[in-house]
Amino acid sequence: MTNTTVVVGTRKVLLLFGYTRWNKYSIAALLGVLEKEGIDKEIRIMISSLSGLHNILNASLRSKYELVIVAISLMSTQLPLLLGDIRKLVESARKVGAITVVGGPHATGDPYGSLISLGFDVAFLSESERSFTEFIRAIVDEGDPLKVRGTAFWDGERVILNGRPVPIDLNEYPPFSLKYGFLGPIEITRGCPFACKYCQVSYMFGTRPRHRRIDNLTYYALELIKRGLRDIRFISPNSFGYGSMGSSVNYSALEDLVTALQEVRKRGGRVYLGSFPSEVRPDFVEAEVVKLIRDNVDNKRIIIGAQSGSDRVLKLIGRSHSADDVLNAVALLRQYGFGVDVDYIFGLPGETAEDCRETINHIAKVIGLGARVHAHVFLPLPGTPLVFDAPGKITHDLRRELFKLLGRGLIYGQWVRQEMLASEIDELRRRYVIIASPKRVDEALNKLGRSELRARPAAQAMLKVIKS
Q1: What secondary structure, in 3-state letters, does the chain show?
Q2: Cα distance between residue 114 and residue 101, in whole Å
Q3: What gap in Å lies between CA 259 and CA 450, rounded to an integer?
Q4: Which of 66, 191, 57, 44 is nearest to 127 (CA)?
C-alpha cells in the first residue's frame, strides 16, 4: 500500500488513513472505492494507527507533497477514548499544513462538534463512498472539493453544510479492497425502515433499505475464499430482512440468497447469517425462514434484538414489535436447534422501575427457553432523537440480578463499561465536545472561544493549494 506513489503532472497528493480496530471496515470500503475509480493510482496512500500518524506528520514529509490529507472514520463510542489522540493529531496536521477530514457515524451525527470542537477541516455526512471519492477527485483534478455534496466544513465563521449525499447503489461499490487485501464482512443491506430512536443506522443511511444483488455479493464471497478466508459474514441491520422494503419478510428474496450461498459453501466457505456482526429482528423470525436456513448456514447461534421486555418501552423507542414477539422467536429458533443470544438495552429513556421488573421477568422467560442474554446500556448517541436524553444507568436491583445471571453463565456483555461510557458521552456533550444540534452552536462558540476559532485556518485557506 505504501508503494502506490504516483505524481499527477507536478502535483503530489498523500492520503493518510488513521486506523483503529473499530474503523477497519470503513477503511476497507473506501480503499475499495479508490481502487475501483483508479484514484489509488494517482495519489499515494498510507495507513497507520493514530499514534503512528503523529510520527509520520512532520515538516519533511509535508515538503515532499503539495497536499497531505489525514482521514479518520469515527464512531461516537470511540470518542471518549480517542479524544486526546484526535486533538493531538489534528494539531500536528495543522502545523504542517495538512488537511484533516472525518467521516463515519460520529461525523454524520455531529458535524458541528467534529468541525468546531475536534477541529477537523472537513466532515463527511452519511455514507461517503461517493462523496469521498468526489472530494479526492476534485483535489487531483484541481476542482473545488468544498462543493462536494455530503460534506461540511468550517469557513472561519460558521459551519457550512453541503447537504446529504444521494444514497448509493451498493452494487456499484465494492464492500472492501481486493487489490490491497483490506477485507471483511460483506454489506448486503444498508438502511433500516424502523428508525429505532436510540440507533444511528436509519438516521445515517435512511429508512429505505438497499440490498446488494445476489450475484454481486456471491462474487465477493468467492473472492474471499480464493484469498483463504473461509468464514463469510455479512453486515445488515436485520439479516432476515434481505430483499424486504418494509416490515415483513421477503421470503422469495431470502430463499434466493440462501440458495446462491450454497455454492459458496461448496467451495469451502462457511456462511454465517443472523450472527455477528449482524442480528435479526424478532418479528422476522418465522417458521418458513428458520426451516430455510437450518441446514443451509454454518452458524449455530442467532442473535435477536429484543432491547426491552416492556411493551411500553418498546413503543417509546420505536421498535415496532412486542415483547411476546421475542419469546416466540426464541422458542421457534430453539425448536429448530439454534442457540439464541438476545440483546437487551438497560437504562433506556422513560424506563420506570415497573418496566425494569417486566424486563427482568422477560429475561427469565428467555433463559427458560434456552437462550443467553447479551446486556447493553443505553448510550445517548449523536444523530439520534435521544441524543440529549440522560445516559443509561443500571439500578442497584438490576445490577444484582445481572450479576446473579453472570455467575450462572447465562449473560454476557460490556454493560459495566457501557454504563461508564454513557456517562463519558454525556460529559463530552456538557463540555460541547459533542454539539449535535445547530441550536447549540452559538453556545459552543461562546464556551470554546470565538476569537480562537476565528484564528484557526478555514478549510478554504487550507485547500488553497488546489487553485495555486
Answers
A1: CCCCCCCECCECEEEEEEECCCCHHHHHHHHHHHHHHCHHHCCEEEEEEHHHHHHHCCHHHHHHCCEEEEEEECCHHHHHHHHHHHHHHHHHHHHCCCEEEEECHHHHHCHHHHHHHCCCCEEECCCCHHHHHHHHHHHHCCCCHHHCCCEEEECCCCEEECCCCCCCCHHHCCCCECCCCECCCEECEECCCCCCCCCCHHHHHCCCCEECCHHHHHHHHHHHHHCCCCEEEEECCCHHHCCCCCCCCCHHHHHHHHHHHHHHHHCCCEEECCCCCCCECHHHCCHHHHHHHHCCCCCCEEEEEEECCCHHHHHHCCCCCCHHHHHHHHHHHHHCCCEEEEEEEECCCCCCHHHHHHHHHHHHHHHHCCCEEEEEECCCCCCCCCCCCCCCCCCHHHHHHHHHHHHCCCEECCHHHHHHHHHHHHHHHHCCCCCCCHHHHHHHHHHHCHHHHHHCCCHHHHCHHHCC
A2: 9
A3: 60
A4: 191
- Asked if 284 and 238 touch (Cβ cutoff 8 Å), the reply is yes
How many CB atoms sit inside 10 A of residue 155's CB?
Answer: 13
Contact 291, 336 (CB under 8 A): yes
Pair 433, 425: CB distance under 8 Å: no
The half-sphere exposure of 125 on its side-chain side, counting CA atoms within 13 A, is 25
Comparing CA positions, the residue from 80, 193, 7, 118 lying closest to residue 419 is: 80
Answer yes or no: pTM beyond 0.90.
Answer: yes
Phi, psi of 210 (to 5 degrees): -120, 130
CA neighbours within 13 Å on the CB side: how many for 308? Answer: 29
More confident residue, 59 or 226: 226
CA pair distance 370, 323, nearest whole angstrom? 17
pLDDT tens-digit map of 364-382:
999 999 999 999 999 999 9
Q: How far is CA 97 from CA 17, 93, 142, in A?
A: 16, 6, 18
> In this structure, which amino acid lies at residue 61?
L
Model pLDDT for residues 117-169, shown as the tens digit of each residue: 999 999 999 999 999 999 999 998 888 999 999 999 988 888 999 999 999 99
Q: How far apart are the first and last CA of the chain?
A: 28
